[in-house]
Amino acid sequence: MKYIRMKNLLTLFVILTSALFWGTGCNPQTQEKEAYLFAYFTGNGPGEEAVHYAISNDGFNYRALNNNQPVIKADSISLRGGVRDPHILRGDDGKTFYMVLTDLYVPNDGWSNQGMVFLKSNDLVNWTHSTIHIPEVFPETFGDVHRVWAPQTIYDPEVQKYMVYFSMKQGNGPDIIYYAYANDDFTGLETEPKQLFYHPENKSCIDGDIVKKDGQYHLFFKTEGHGNGIKKAVSDQLTEGYTMEDEYLQQTKEAVEGSGIFKLNDSEKYILMYDVYMKGEYQFTQSTDLQEFEVIDQDISMNFHPRHGVVLPITMEEAKRLVDAYGIDEKNLIMGVNNDQVYEKNVDLDQEEETIYLPVKNEVDLSAVDPEFQMFTGYSLSPSGAQDFSNGPVSYTLTKPDGSTQTIEVSAKKDNNPALKGYYADPEIIYSNKTGKFHIYPTSDGFTGWSGTYFKSFSSEDLTNWQDDGVILDLKKDVEWADRNAWAPCAIEKEIDGEYKYFYYFTAAQKVGVAVADDPAGPFVDSGKPLVDFRPEGVRGGQEIDPDVFRDPQTGKEYLYWGNGYLAAVPLNEDMVSFDKSKVKILTPEDGTFREGTEVIFRNGKYYFFWSENDTRSEDYRVRYAFAESPMGPLTIPKNNLVISKAPEKGIYGTGHNSVIQVPGKDEWYIVYHRFTRPHGIDMGRAAGYHREVCIDRLTFDEEGNITQVEPTVSGIKSIKLD
């Protein structure tokens, strides 16, 4: 048995917030539970299979501790080098905590493992641990086990022991949920595992989660491999007699796993949450009877992306201890605002500058804005109610847990960046002669590892007020040859025999496809096969992604561009859905800055090629450009060719992957690009690369046609008027 001491990584912040919570000194078993601890892991990659913590004061709004870095690193406790599916139980004495984890490192092991990790603590910060390798402990009955997944613990009052239940798989048999009793030290199993639940059709079951209500035990589980969701079995005994109910309980058609259920403090409501793992999302649902569940995602906020975790009600004293140990980012003290008036994702609290920025919606009257601040436990802002922001900032008083106060100047503004509200990236923009509107086609963002599977479009008459036109292409429904990684589309309008057609080029599964529609807002019909599914001759590495389409106004001829790590170009055939492969040409800029995201325009006799430099997860993701003699090059790189880059003083980072639009009939140009979500993206680490938002700023040129470097803004542009 080994001992772990968690290190305080945010000492300064802890000093400032050491009184964030105050306890009564009562026994935690009887002390009121007024907060919640969310324990989770973050993904399948290196370093992501570890224990993370987040805190909530209401069970709905969660903020990561320790800057969303692990509070327990896997290599300090596991045999395999990774731990997943954390479950924490408060012991029967009210003050001892028991954590169990899957011992698995996916990058090396795939989905095969043979063990678990047991931990024990008196304070949720310092843990002792031990590992259990099932084939070694039970060689005769379980020597051939090759999956030991998602353990959980519950106290059995009949035998006064802690029961651990988990799924195991042997040979070609189904995954079965077993149970065994832990020894008194919680360092191992003292009984051989027995089958806990018998599926009536002998189908696989994993991710068991038991809650007791009205004298009955409700076992939630996933029908792994035989169905796509969560079911439930009920018994009046903990270890036997479970009868499965027929209904699936998840409220989505997406694949789910890792259900976790907990009761809200001082309420009869239960929250059932589960991991929508193919989309990198969590869904929260609510019930009072554990039969009917209602989706409450609109009430949930998190500044992290969890995978298969658990929520544990905790006391104020315990919450204080956790915040003292790990700290919370001051930007996240505001847990929620009035969503009817304010864009919550972009609210910016700067305690050092003593300011709060509220981006309000266009229809809101600035003379009567009620922010309805919901603060992290122990903090409050006053005054309350509607305030007049029409004449500038309003002074608020921030009261801290220790009773001290700070004056905060709160400003409310109707800014136009981000142009699209929510997580979107890789924007392509066109003007449609048919509709007389501008249309933006972005990547749907916010999905872990860029795992989105659908595309949307947005339309506007003035470049500032954007209407969501809905999903125009869904890979899982509309595309036969790919169902993942819906990225970086582009589009073009073409008049054919007096009718407008719209050609939509998109990335799916690292290939380029094309779909066609009669309207710029779709729906689009896929051609049935990828247009680009090959690496051009002479190219090594990179990906076949990020298409761009361009019509040469001098010839009327259309061209397609694509590539990550290289820039390929080819003339399109008249049908717009094919090309001569022998005409593909590599135009990769020779200065070594090209990464992806090509955009081509024509102005005053000059062809301009834009591209993005660095990785989209980098704060230095930015745009450069070159001149060309024709749509097929060659490229000439000017001395000062930076188009747009980060502006740290404004909290703007990761400005890249652009398109450009000209106002019809005018020499007036705008750049449409994405940035990290502001203000929180810069603190998200690598996750900032898939939490991006679309912005628009003015693009200008000097007398010689060189691009004047764009200063990215928070305010955005003013509405334009079409003649």
From TrEMBL:
Record carries keyword Magnesium: no
Signal peptide: 1-23
Pfam families with a match to the protein in the record: Glyco_hydro_43 (PF04616)
Entry keyword set: Carbohydrate metabolism, Glycosidase, Hydrolase, Polysaccharide degradation, Signal, Xylan degradation
Family affiliation: Belongs to the glycosyl hydrolase 43 family.
Gene3D superfamilies cross-referenced by the UniProt entry: 2.60.40.2340, Glycosyl hydrolase domain, family 43 (2.115.10.20)
InterPro entries per the UniProt record, alphabetical: Glyco_hydro_43, Glyco_hydro_beta-prop_sf, Glycosyl_Hydrlase_43_Enz
Name of the featured protein: Family 43 glycosylhydrolase
Source organism: Echinicola jeungdonensis
